[in-house]
Amino acid sequence: MTDDRALAGDLATAAGELLLDVRANSGLAGKELGRAGDLRSNDFLLERLRAQRPDDAVLSEESADDKSRLSAPRVWIVDPVDGTREYGTEGRSDWAVHVALWSSSGGLIAGAVALPALGVTYVDDAEPVEPVDGLAAEPKGETIRVVVSGSRPPAFSQAVADALGGEVLQMGSAGAKAMAVVRGEADAYVHAGGQYEWDSAAPVAVARAKGLWCGRIDGSELVYNRDDTYLPDLVICRPEFTDTIIGVTAPYA
């Protein structure tokens, strides 16, 4: 049987390939394309998980929340298209597919984030990632970058950048922003004002495995498979920047 990490990576990659096909051949655009992609990817992921992990529960952005997951020992947390608006916009690469596995005994134990438009999938292993460009419009250079939501930048965005002596970079998709830090295109990702477990579970699993610090804006731990799936804030950063960032963000918690 395929191990959980490999399965997460395979599923995220295959869902991403399906989404690229829908994007190229459906004749749809904008919100209609986003909705079609969400549904197709969700159906694919649920079907594959039922076939390969029939005893596990699933929490998906695009499916009704089956509360039996709260007593399940293993729960897959998936976002079939993270960054639906960016996916529906021609030429945008900052969207992702998230597949994570939560265990009652170990928290997040597997995760994968696919960036289909870039043809790459990151999994929760300790393999180093060489710095690479592609998500941001401009190469990074030496300046410290703090990546934030393009549609909902937190009120403290500039204050965090100033504290680090850096600049703010806006980008779509939580997965893309998290992977920008993993890829070395940014040094920190900060968010406040609304997310759910499926937005951050897979990115956090990958980022932690790559040696990044992940937590809430008050410095507390991220907790998954809760009754209320709302998890409104997030920090992913290089470990040496953690104290400086939390010093700025904690008062906003």
TrEMBL record:
> What Pfam families has UniProt attached to this entry?
Inositol_P
Is Protein biosynthesis a UniProt keyword of this protein? no
Q: Which GO terms describe its biological process?
A: 3'-phosphoadenosine 5'-phosphosulfate metabolic process; sulfate assimilation
What InterPro entries has UniProt attached to this entry?
CysQ/Inositol_MonoPase (IPR050725), Inositol_monoP_metal-BS (IPR020583), Inositol_monophosphatase-like (IPR000760)
List, in alphabetical order, the Gene Ontology terms for molecular function in this entry.
Answer: 3'(2'),5'-bisphosphate nucleotidase activity; metal ion binding
Which reaction does this enzyme catalyse, per its entry?
adenosine 3',5'-bisphosphate + H2O = AMP + phosphate
Q: Does the keyword Magnesium apply?
A: yes
Entry keywords, A to Z:
Magnesium, Metal-binding
Which residues are recorded as binding Mg(2+)? Answer: 61, 79, 82, 199
- Which domain of life does the protein's organism represent? Bacteria
What cofactors are annotated for this protein?
A: Mg(2+)
- Spell out the PANTHER family in the cross-references: 3'(2'),5'-BISPHOSPHATE NUCLEOTIDASE 1 (PTHR43028:SF5)
The name under which this protein is listed is 3'(2'),5-bisphosphonucleoside 3'(2')-phosphohydrolase
Species in which this protein is naturally found: Gordonia bronchialis (strain ATCC 25592 / DSM 43247 / BCRC 13721 / JCM 3198 / KCTC 3076 / NBRC 16047 / NCTC 10667)
